[in-house]
Write a structure and sequence with these properties.
The protein has 371 residues and is an alpha+beta fold. It is built from 13 helices and six strands. It starts with a helix and ends with a helix.
Amino acid sequence: MSRLGRLGGHLYSGEVSVDFVGRRRLWYVISGLVVVVAIGALFLKPLNFGIEFEGGVEFRAKVPATMADPVPELQSAVADTGLDDDPLVVTSGDDGVRIQTEALSAAEIETLTSAVEKAGASDVSSDFVGPSWGKAIAQRALIGLAVFLVLVVLFIGFYFREWKMSLAALVALAHDVVITVGVYALTGFEVTPATVTGLLTILGYSLYDTVVVFDKVRENTRGMASNSRRTYGESANLAVNQTLVRSINTTVAALLPVAAILYVGVFQLGSGPLKDLALALFVGMAAGAYSSIFIATPLLVQLKQREPAVRQQSRRVAARRGEAPPPMVGEPAPAEAGGSRPQRQRPMGQQTGRRSQPQRTSRSQRSKGRR
């Protein structure tokens, strides 16, 4: 058996355990910092929406091999026409180029086509995308996202019969989406319909990974009310350890082909839907694996520990181990309450727990007393 297999066996049996639940404050801080950076990137560097969302004209052309760097030359050629001061020019493959401009009339399209051909490009074609088309795509993407989230809540609610699991799963999904969108803002990658497809895909992947962990949590916590060996948090932490190796293997196996697609899309093709889809999948899958382990389960335990039944069970476990019981809801911690419980003062003569007896004297002592 390999080392990873032996480690998985030790994690599954509980011989080796990583305290994911107990260190949840650390994971929250790390995730919070990443989310803040992602949100800050959206304000400092807005998303680069593609032509499908904003509308405009897209030109496709071929450039000769003698043109070492066609991007600045074509940008200057388009800007010199006065039709668009800041066109988007990106390479597409070895001899292709894409130029995106604002909405133009038919005569302006002809003028810009001639300017691009004079700059050295050939086989120039153009496609016009109206702004109404882009709004319709964005609207449908938002509707699809809303429907997906509603189905997630209903599915987890009916499957696990626990609304706290639905809430923890939604927080993990929001965590993954914010990080993925923030990476798009930081890298400047174009947001296209392929990006939306990738976002919906990673939501499904993240939910799948979270459901696997939650299913193990439910299995370990079944009959918890009559169990005094482990607390709810310890059983949930065991579930995360039991599924840890599986989650790592599944994530690595999924990320390797996606990384290959991302490499081809960025360094070989240069632009296109393949690159936009691969980046969303790569970032989202990595964030989804992280959130299912470090965010969803610790948050679920934090929510469940507010239930009186779970707290009562934790007190029974502590009593069996001879430890100080955790405080109930609204009750101060033992350290805050002044340490150990004060002992009840017994009346004089009962300090040892025995009934006081009259003092007996011997016969010789009585005779001496008479004298």
